[in-house]
Amino acid sequence: MGSRALKLTPKPAITTDDAQAARRTAGFLGRWLANQASTAFVLQTLGVRPCTQLIDIGSTSTDRLLRVRAFTVVANKGTAGARRALWAVSESRPFDWRNVDAIDALAGSPFVEPDIVSSVGLADLLRQPAPIAASKSVLVAAHANIEVAGATFDKIAHSDSSLPLLLLGCVLLARRDRFLANRLLDLLPEGHVARGILDISHQNLLPPGCIDDLGHILVRQEVLHWLGRGITTENRKTRRSSVARRRLAAWWEVGSGAVVERLFTPRQTSK
Length: 271
What we know:
The chain is an all-alpha fold. Helix content is 50%, strand content 2%. The protein contains 12 helices and 2 strands; from the N terminus they run ααααααααααααββ. The chain has helices at 16-38, 48-60, 64-77, 80-90, 97-107, 114-118, 122-127, 130-143, 146-156, 165-173, 178-185, 217-226, and strands at residues 246-248, 264-266. Strands 1-2 form a two-stranded antiparallel ribbon. The longest helix is centred in the N-terminal third of the chain and has 23 residues, at 16-38. The radius of gyration is 18 Å and the shape is globular. The chain starts with 15 loop residues before the first helix and ends in a 5-residue tail after the last strand.
């Protein structure tokens, strides 16, 4: 079920030279992505060969930042076939963080093919390891047909262990259908503080421990990661994130649908 821990495969040894080369490549990809985002024209879709090379780099690299950026380029600038190849990486076994990073790259893309999104079933969200279930929840909420997404999160709201995933769905669905998101939030226990997740501000974030009574602890941990910017810790600071993992930006600041990409921003701070 979704409360299973994600078992990582052993990391192969990596030399200092390899690590430095990986970081240089990751830095180049990061600068390239930033440049594409800031230019007025739209870059033509990358061809099959560079996308295949980037997927190979991401699938084999032990440097997670490099992997995240390689997958992000494919998801954002690749062909439909490239995104399907990236989805195949996300479904490969055994599960490890490569699966998570591939799903996250697709979730943050401006467009994902409907056949990819429709292949995510309710069972995936309820039974797969918590990091993968959370990432697939973001993918569904951001890209699935709105009626299908609403029905999916309605069912999640009735799952004792996976209930925190409802919050991820509501934050993203609110950008597409605020009425639906509010209706789903009403499925939380009466008077629960997390019902106000769409109405917070920098001066009024959700309090620490606000979802401690919801779902399984492993699912809560993943949801807290994604929603970390909107929840304070015991020392009144927002939660920190690892360097390469994605999480939602300040969703209460995001305006119209023209800036969807801002919801998916890798953290650049150190661990």
